[in-house]
Fold these 4 entries.
Entry 1:
Amino acid sequence: MTNIIFYRIKGDYNSLLLFACQLAGKAYQKKVSVLISTSKESISNKIDEKLWSFDPVSFIPHDIESDPSSLIAINHEMKPGEHDQLLINLSDRSTPRWFSRFQKVIEIVYDEQEVIGNKRKQYGFYKSRGYPIKYYDLTVNN
């Protein structure tokens, strides 16, 4: 069964992009395939740019693909391609209908009321279907 992980982060949309890059980078180091799913081409382009520039000393090969097959792929056409390990869902409005083919799905919540509300709905969607959910609040100082 697909494991769902919610991360609550401080910041805005740029914080979301940076955190998604960090997650993709960690997965890449472990040779885990990642599909970063976005809701539109402009967001795909922004995450593409951020992946190239967020860490000046590392390199994360990736592509924007209409039929995702690269180890790290970005897609806004709502197609999973060959991916089935890690889905990072950057859409704040919906869950791709094929999310359950993945081992893990990551949802990121940041400081925007509309996003928080939409992610609550997505949380309820997963919970009502019995998916195991973990929630990490990274806004709390330990």
Entry 2:
Amino acid sequence: MLKRLKYISRSSSVMSSEEISALAKTSVENNKASDITGVLVEASGIFFQVIEGPADAVDALYKR
């Protein structure tokens, strides 16, 4: 069963654009193994994210 999760979070510290790019790259690499795809948008330390994939994989990712 496919699951889609949307959420908003705030960075605990100021991140440079390079750090955000590295975070996105690492997330893509890690999520491939679990068949998860998504979108990450950042503005002024606020993140909006959508993740989608098998329900158990999305639940496990969100718990982390």
Entry 3:
Amino acid sequence: RAPGGVRGCAGGRICAVPSTLPVDPDDPRIPPLMSAYWSEMAHRYGESDGDTPLVPLHEDTRWLLVQDDTGSVVGCGAVQPLASTVEDAPSHIGEVKRVYVVPGARGHGHSRLLMAHLVQVARSAGYRTLWLDTGTPQHEAIALYERLGWRQIERYGQFAHDERTLCYAFDL
């Protein structure tokens, strides 16, 4: 790779590398990604869209977008205080939410990059531990989290009653 976040491409051209971009929660690129996320989750879990009202994200949620090597936005993720999901949770625990990469961009390291940068965001926010929830129909996510060293913990949060829910923690 060439210095400065670029890499050499065929024909000696210089190409950008995939990257993350911090954005405000009202960034207009987030809703289309979330719409695709909810549609995919409904399909994976065999439910129709909107059956379960979701707990809204915290006002202090920090969002990242993932851009591929062309600069196109292909995913997103966020970090928020765990206390917004679990009442009276310690302030040193953050929660990863809404991790999503569009199907056509999967398998290129974007999720791994996103998770690494979400950990950096969490550290800069002063969290010492991160938690997240996922589900058994999300095989790729489970494999990613386990490869990255997340450890399974007791179910928590809105879907703690659902046997398909898996929860993980990562010490920063």
Entry 4:
Amino acid sequence: GGWHRGGGKYGLAGLSVKLGFEGQVEILLANPDRDTGLEKQKVAAARFLFTGMEGDCHGGLTRKSDSRMLKQYKRNTEVRNSRQVSILSAEELAEAAERMGIPAVKPEWVGANMVLRGIPDLTLLPPSTRLQFPSGAMLVVDAENHPCRYPADIIARHHPEQKKGFVSAAMHKRGVVGWVEAEGEIRTGDRVTIWIPPQRIYPHA
């Protein structure tokens, strides 16, 4: 049983390499109802379950496909939810704000669930990177979260002159989305261990 010939017996998790530095949880945010138009609110701690972050509207084992998936599915097709959690970098948010010429891009403006500090180029973490927390909770990176008009519109409420600036300023700095592989509580101030999977470039793309 298990994976063989290049995959290793235990798959990507078993082959992952622990990075020599850690990150830290700076902010946690949740919003139970996306239809209210309210920004996410900061919380000191939250349980992360197989369905996602407890108390947040992006939870669920499945979700409806959206405009990002129109090449593969008709809109609103039921699909596995690999976007349970939105994870951003404090340093990258500051860089985006500097590019835009505003004091800050607040994480609640851009739909973040978690802001981490101390992970260089967090948005470039490859798919299947694992983020491990002291409670045993483990989040798996699915993909980069590209900047879009929705957070740009929210930022424009606070900085009208920046109606379109966010999309270009936050390119490759919007963080990543992921899903919960192991349940546990995550608290502000927790250290984060990063496990990077083997890196390969598919030569036929």
